[in-house]
Design goal:
heterotrimer, A: alpha+beta, 5-stranded antiparallel β-sheet, 1 helix, 24% helix, C: 6-stranded mixed β-sheet, 5-stranded parallel β-sheet, 17 helices
Chain lengths: 83, 362, 372
């Protein structure tokens, strides 16, 4: 379930009383409702599911996770395994 | 009623002249009478002129062909909504579709016929635009539209316009191109990035509300294919064994057809398959797989390994083939199946498209 | 950031390193359930199950809302969609789900106005543009979809759009996990919790489950590295004998989740018993519209007759959804039941376990294809 894709907010506006945003998904623009992410700013990445941003993606956490993952590779390179 | 006995003033009576209906299609445009004639003169004859069409008879007599060639015929009906989309329209599609069907048979396309089914209410200038677009594509492909027909259906019984095109081409008798000819060891060349037509049309429909600068890849491929065939010439026949355009059903369906027809296995490498970033984005958004998206200006070549470099070079020299890549090969394992080596080093089955492509939500 | 978010979590080198890390860690067989159909899809699409050591078995969970929507509700949808004054709107993959007689495609072929939308807001817009028509939205989904569906109701109310209603089939993950764990034949030893459900709901709900059933639960995303990281952490706990809730999707998921979304869900929906296709009724496992929003409830608005529903006797979707059988263990798999002619819902949605097996690994030499 739950196809959700990250996109970057390029514009924030209001429509019919709802906070809406123009979101850039790697070169594709689509409108999404931003009412559940009141803290979101232009330039932030959000996860969008069925037209609604469900959360702002934490760049800090994303970087940290990737850095942790990279550590395994570095560790392996330093300590070659038997296999 | 009270005027019943009044004498009628015949001087003021006249038969109203019928309207010319030059702005939109009415049922009478399909009657075969005056309106039809006017439409042919004002729209079709203006854009599609050649001596064969101008014969004006019920059919067209074509010049004889060299006995070293055989005749290849193909037909295709074009129904598309919307009729205009980024990068093309139903007219361009109707010409390119049939030109490409002939070209992938190894034939040089020469003549097309065009049958139009118009819906009442279609603006005449829309029709004119479509016909001029057909003329442009026919000119680019170097084919002549030599016969045509127009019918009109009542409003609500058509989708604006449907076009059927049939095509005639010639192919050297010595050339054997077929879906049955793929051989173990052959390389698979794809002439360019996948999915642009499918995504552009989806976008133009507007239901799913996304925007991008993506254009349909619809194009006549006969010159590209002619170049590839020339480069593929070698002593024991042509290096190109199979050609096919991955239209509806996409690359996945085309490769599955070939694997079944030739009773071989096919392996493709995800990392080598060209796909534009925007196409990937739309597909991820809607839960589609670019391998199943329609193309209208791409060709798959199955080529003898020795000729691959030459053929690839020739394809890349054409403006529609600059991003061509070798994406995989024909193998003896797993006959009739297509496998994909993913970027992360695993292998999975690539099946044919089943039914309609539907956006996943979820 | 753009490409990092998109491709960083698919990096081949990192994927392979993560797989080696799992290989080193695992000492015996473990059965792990990925709850979410989206994760099932990723596992099959990226071939992750083949990369992993044979000790790791994925049991595909019931997290495909299209698959678990009850036959009764689908039959209701078919009835409503066939009404002359109705525009029936739905997410795409619901159109092919077979009811007792036909699917939404066949309703459309018979003249029903059935439209695919991307968002319930699109459906609301159709209602606004067609004031003389009744516009119904098939509101299926787990917690992920609920914020959107709830907001469409609030918007309809605020904008006084009276010709809009929802046919609601909302289901919730935690009760389904409990139902699976309570089953006497349960084989699941650890869970990958659905990352996007947790984006909305947080992961506090899973802490009592992990505690009570002594089962590790790891909140997991959808990219290959996300899933491998989830597997790694579950295996680490299983091998170490712990049972905690861990968050391996911290770029989107927090302990408390999205409070603003939860508040709107609470306002519009209330907990109800829900029948799951292939599983049966799970108490308190769904959401329905609160009485205050009854006028937006399509079941209330349209008088649908009770129909006797009929499932194919061959279909083992229920066992597949509970992780008791693999799709290829079904006698009809790939022969009588295919995506073109599905007998059960798990073959319909491309997220369904049977469809995922059919599309990505059918007829390969070994069903699991480890180390090919």
């Amino acid at each position: 379930m739950c196809l959700g894709v990250p996109g970057k907010i390029v514009e924030i506006y209001e429509a019919n009383g709802l906070a809406m945003g123009k979101i850039d998904f790697g070169g594709v623009l689509r409108e999404a409702c931003l009412t559940y992410v009141p803290e979101a700013k232009v330039g932030d990445y959000v996860l969008v599911h069925v037209g609604f941003a469900l959360n702002v993606i934490s760049e800090e956490e994303a970087n940290e996770t990737l850095a942790l993952l990279n550590e395994i590779v570095n560790l392996e390179e330093e300590l070659p395994t038997q296999d | 009623m009270s005027d019943e006995n009044q004498p009628i003033d015949f001087l003021g009576a006249y038969c109203p002249l019928p309207l010319t209906h030059s702005e939109q299609i009415v049922i009478g445009h399909g009657s075969g009478g005056r309106l039809t004639y006017d439409l042919i003169q004002s729209v079709f004859a203006t854009h599609l002129t050649n001596p064969l069409l101008e014969q004006g008879d019920d059919g067209v007599a074509l010049p004889p062909i060299d006995p070293e060639f055989e005749i290849v015929v193909s037909t295709d009906s074009h129904v598309i909504s919307p009729i205009f989309f980024p990068g093309g329209d139903i007219g361009k599609l109707a010409v390119c579709g049939t030109v490409n069907d002939l070209a992938v048979m190894g034939a040089k396309p020469l003549y097309l016929t065009a049958g139009f089914i118009l819906e009442e209410g279609l603006p005449v200038d829309v029709l004119e635009f479509i016909v001029s677009s057909m003329a442009k594509s026919a000119e680019e492909a170097g084919v002549a539209i030599v016969a045509g027909d127009t019918k009109v259906v009542e409003r609500g019984k058509g989708d604006g316009i449907f076009i059927n095109t049939s095509g005639v081409g010639i192919r050297p008798r010595s050339l054997h191109i077929s879906g049955r000819n793929a051989k173990v060891g052959d390389r698979i060349i794809l002439s360019g990035p996948l999915g642009e037509h499918g995504v552009a049309v989806l976008q133009a429909r507007g239901d799913l509300g996304f925007l991008s600068d993506l254009q349909s890849d619809v194009a006549p491929l006969n010159h590209l294919i002619a170049g590839a065939l020339e480069a593929g010439m070698q002593d024991r026949g042509n290096a190109i064994h199979t050609m096919r355009d991955p239209t509806r059903g996409g690359l996945a369906t085309t490769l599955n057809e070939i694997a079944r027809q030739s009773n071989v296995g096919i392996v493709i490498n995800e990392a080598e398959i060209p796909i534009q970033e925007t196409v990937i984005s739309v597909c991820e958004m809607l839960g589609f797989d670019p391998l199943y998206m329609a193309n209208e200006g791409k060709c798959v070549f199955i080529v003898d390994p020795e000729g691959t470099d030459r053929v690839l070079k020739a394809i890349r020299a054409d403006k529609y083939g600059s991003k061509a890549r070798v994406i995989g090969e024909v193998v003896s394992d797993h006959p009739q199946k297509v496998l994909l080596k993913t970027m992360i080093g695993s292998t999975r089955l690539v099946d044919m498209l089943s039914g309609e492509l539907l956006p996943r939500i979820c | 950031m753009d490409t990092k978010l998109r491709y960083g979590f698919r990096d081949t080198k990192l994927v392979q390193a993560k797989v080696r890390q799992i290989q080193k860690l695992v000492t015996r067989p473990w059965a792990i359930m990925e709850i979410c159909g989206g994760q099932t899809h990723s596992i099959k699409k990226f071939g992750l199950d083949q990369l992993l050591p044979p000790e790791i078995e994925f049991i595909h969970g019931p997290g495909c809302p299209v698959c678990v929507t009850s036959l009764e509700l689908i039959d209701k949808a078919l009835q409503i969609a066939a009404l002359p004054n109705v525009i029936f709107t739905s997410y795409g993959d619901m159109l092919r789900v077979p009811g007792s007689k036909g699917d939404l495609f066949s309703v459309k072929a018979n003249g029903g106005d059935v439209r695919v939308v991307y968002s319930p807001l699109d459906s609301l817009k159709i209602a606004q543009e067609n004031p003389r028509k009744e516009v119904v939205f098939f509101a299926i989904g787990f917690e992920t979809t609920a914020p959107a569906n709830a907001m469409s109701v609030l918007q309809a109310e605020a904008m006084r759009i009276d010709n809009f209603s929802l046919l609601v089939s909302h289901v919730c993950v935690p009760p389904a996990m409990r139902a699976i764990l309570n089953s006497p034949s349960n084989r699941v030893q650890g869970f990958l919790a659905a990352g996007h459900v947790c984006t909305v709901m947080g992961y506090w709900e899973y802490i009592p489950i992990a505690e009570e059933y002594r089962v590790p639960i790891v909140v997991t995303g959808f990219e290959p590295l996300d899933i491998l990281e989830g597997v790694y952490r579950v295996v680490r706990q299983l091998e170490g004998g712990t049972h905690e809730v861990e968050n391996a999707y911290s770029r989107l998921v927090t302990y408390e989740g999205n409070r603003a979304a939860q508040k709107v869900i609470q306002q519009v929906f209330e907990v109800c018993d829900r029948k799951w296709r292939g599983i049966g009724t799970i108490p308190k496992s769904g959401w329905k519209l609160r009485d205050a929003y009854l006028k937006f409830d399509a079941e209330h608005r349209f008088d649908t007759q009770a129909i006797e529903t009929q499932e194919s006797p061959l279909c083992i979707a229920g066992l597949v959804l509970q992780g008791l059988k693999k799709p290829y263990e079904c006698s009809a798999f790939g022969t009588l039941c295919t995506p073109q002619n599905p007998l059960g819902a798990t073959m319909v949605s491309s997220e369904g376990a049977c469809a995922a097996y059919y599309l990505y690994s059918r007829n390969l030499e070994s069903p699991k294809m480890n180390h090919v």
